[in-house]
Amino acid sequence: MILAHLSDLHLGHRAFDRWDEGVNLRERDFSLAFQRAIDDMIAQAPDVVVVTGDVFDRPDPPPGALVTLARGLEALHSALPGVPVHLVAGARDTPRRRGDAGALAALDAFPHVEAATTIPRSIFYEDLSLHVQLIPHRAVLRGPQPLIEPDPRAQWNVVATCGRVARGDGPGFQFDPAGWDYVALGGQHTYEIVSPRVAYAGSLERVGSTPWKEAGEEKGFAMVDLASGEIRFRGVAGRPVVALATSKAPSGDPERLRTRFAEVVREVPGGIARKIVRVRLRGPVPSDLVALQGLVSELDRSAVHLSVEVEDPGGLPGQNVDLAHRVRDNLGDGDNEAAVRLLERVLEPAGHR
Asked: For residue range 117-137, what is the model confidence (pLDDT) as tens digits?
């Protein structure tokens, strides 16, 4: 019995205000990552599929996110008819109003799809000798803790939730994972095998406005052999994200800073075109950064997003400095306003966000 475990799709996620033909580029990235995952999953031909929460990036997703999910489910059903798919609502899928089940509930009407959005749900498949228990985010919030127990009729017992399994006396679900053939967890963007037969699948893309924090992590989903307990990670290609190490830059010499900045960016293998790039500098003061206007503008047009972080600007703690405003104070009246706005957007103290 082979299970595919996906999580944290965040369909409809938008960032960086970059658009192409009316579609946010990051929203398109998340859609493409999901399509790639579906294609690979079809090739792997699992017997059952679970998706553990944050299917959408918000409870009222844009129409494109709904279309992406519907098309993926349709492709899966067409290629693997009869394979059941289980969706568990996460925090991002759950509206604040208790009576609102959210957009994910509409997918419950699809053939061979079970979408648990408000209360726990247990499904038993006699032909597969399989029991799947779904615990959505809202069931976690309400309390008391839902009853979590395997079905003795089933050969295979699986629990899927967008929540944490307690470790010792810590927070999370208090139950014994040993009674289950697999515990599918969501709500964490990093793939992790917590213990035998208990795992987070992680997200398919790097989520949020600071994706470079996960630049070194491979994204994808998990394939699980319920008989042996083997969990295999399947990588999914996404938008390239580059987080360059901190570079020491000259202070008090704007032209040398410009030269050094250009050298640092050239270190990116394959260039920065259509990538998300973070550059970190140590040393320059706001008056030096004015020299980067033209170069930053040129590079920003090439990359999907360019972030320039400055450590210790002007000898002051970065977290307490409005760096963009200090740069503006050093710009003359004749400077191009568009370039000024660009510097305000990409420049920030390290650790500011």
From this structure: 999 999 999 999 999 999 999
Residues 223, 92, single domain; the answer is: yes
Q: Are residues 146 and 216 in the same domain?
A: yes
Number of domains into which the chain is organized: 2
Q: Taking Cα atoms as reference points, which of 53, 81, 55 lies closest to residue 69?
A: 55
Considering the domain architecture, whether residues 295 and 334 belong to the same structural domain is answered as yes
Residue 47 in 3-state DSSP? coil
β 276-282/241-243 pair status: parallel
**Range with lowest mean pLDDT among 68-72, 172-176, 239-243, 250-254:** 172-176
Q: Is the confidence at residue 311, as pLDDT, over 60?
A: yes
Residue 316 near residue 349, CB atoms below 8 Å? no
Least confident of 26-35, 222-231, 234-243, 287-296: 287-296
Could you tell me how far CA 218 lies from the centroid of its own chain? 11
Q: List C-alpha distances in Å: 321 to 47, 155, 246, 279, 344.
A: 54, 60, 19, 18, 13
Predicted confidence band of residue 333 (pLDDT cuts 50, 70, 90): low
The amino acid occupying position 237 is A
Residue type, 75: A
Instruction: List the CATH number of the domain containing 52.
Output: 3.60.21.10
Is-contact 89 137, C-beta < 8 A? yes
4 contact partners, CB below 8 Å, separation of at least 6: 41, 44, 46, 48, 49, 50, 221, 222, 223, 224
Question: Please, which residues have CB within 8 angstroms of residue 312's CB and are 6 or more apart in sequence?
Answer: 282, 283, 318
What is the three-class DSSP state of 116? strand
Residues 194, 296, single domain; the answer is: no
